[in-house]
Amino acid sequence: MQFKLTTLTASIALMFAAAMPAQAQTAKEFEELRAEMRKLRAELDALKGQKQETANAALADRVEQVELRAKDAVVLGDIPNSFRLPNSDTSVRVYGFAELNMVHEFKGDNSDQDYSTFLPYAPLKGTAAGNRKGRTYLTGRTSRFGIEAATPSPYGPIAMKIEGDFNNDPRTGNSAVYGSAGNIFTQQATNSYNFRLRHAYGQFGGLLAGQTWSTFMDLDTLPETVDFNGPIAATFIRQPQIRYTYPAAGMGNFTVALENSVSYVLDNTATVTTAGFSRVPDLIGRWDKAFDWGTVSLRALSHEHRIDDGAGVNLSRRGWGVAASGMVKTVDNDFLTWTVTGGNGIGRYLNYIEGAFYDAGNNRILMEKAAGVVLGYQLKPSETLRYNFALGYQKNFKNEYTDFAVANGLDSGRFGINRKLWQAHIGAIWNPVKGVDIGTEYIFGRRTTLAGEDGDMSRINLSAKYNFN
């Protein structure tokens, strides 16, 4: 095309040159020459138009290809490892992991209560349950799946999160392995476990509404363990709540929350009474602050123990609890964590307390007085290897609560009230490649009942976790 235009232009130039001595040409010849020029000019214009049409067609084709690629492209979202929904400002992240746990119980077989550790009900020495040793089992029930999203707004991102795992036996609704025939039937053929809700909440600005970890729980200072439950003596609760956090510049974060109330009261046989009646939500306040050397968190709660049977018994007592925790940076990437928790009638906010008693003879609610401490240390010699050490200790102090337990024979036996418990974890987690965690951990614990009986727990937990996103 370019060659044709150049040749045509040159021909016109030669004709102009030939026409210079126009005075020697006849009028007829001159008109013929002008006609030829018009013809050549029309051909030139046609060629130019044809070139423009070709260029326009090529451009339209390129635009269409770009649009098709844009439709197929995955656009990075505003939150880490997320993507943008098509024709939307919403960023979505899908995450989770497939995990296998292998547990070998050297002694203190706890599998009738939980696949994971549950020291408060560990079998006692010298009993038939205590003599059962050496059980081994594998499970994939802790595998997890979640989705989180965020949409920008003039007032900040609107975020949400939904997460669950499969730690729920479909026949019993618990996390035991061999506690009943139902647990055995579940493992007989397919090992199918139900999906259960862990988190489901939305967040806008400082306001959170939905189900997640309790505001009284400092998740960041709990030691990392291979064991699913972790050490005794800390708070371990997820529940529905309404929470507001106010970040004060230079002063840390101030948080207040109303959380789901469960009036957990036992009768004189240590059975939970269904006359428990929740009237108002639990109230929790919290302060957190980060420093160059680490973090500190202070928390307090007030909740109600109430019984209302609708037939004349209507009692109420308020329990309270306080907690402090923190993280201290040590050498390189290593750090120390600590948590202290206690209170009078703190109940389920200290893992693990049985709950208040109802003294029907005196028509009173009796509350426990208890405290616990958890220490943790992480040693990280490389980016692919970390060692974790954890120790938890918890004690029930003597008061009218423990006196009532002793008087009613609730101070001994497998499910007797404990005086003290301690539990230690020593483990390592290795990342051979990104997204893969291989863990091993040895756990030892001892419980002592109010009657002075001891029960030991000794086990090793191996795990393989394959993370995505």
TrEMBL record:
Pfam families in the cross-refs: DcaP
Sections of the chain in a coiled coil: 23-57
Keyword terms: Coiled coil, Signal
InterPro entries: DcaP (IPR045748)
Superkingdom of origin organism: Bacteria
Keyword Signal: yes
Keyword set includes Nucleotidyltransferase: no
Signal peptide: 1-24
Full protein name: Porin
Species of the source: Noviherbaspirillum denitrificans
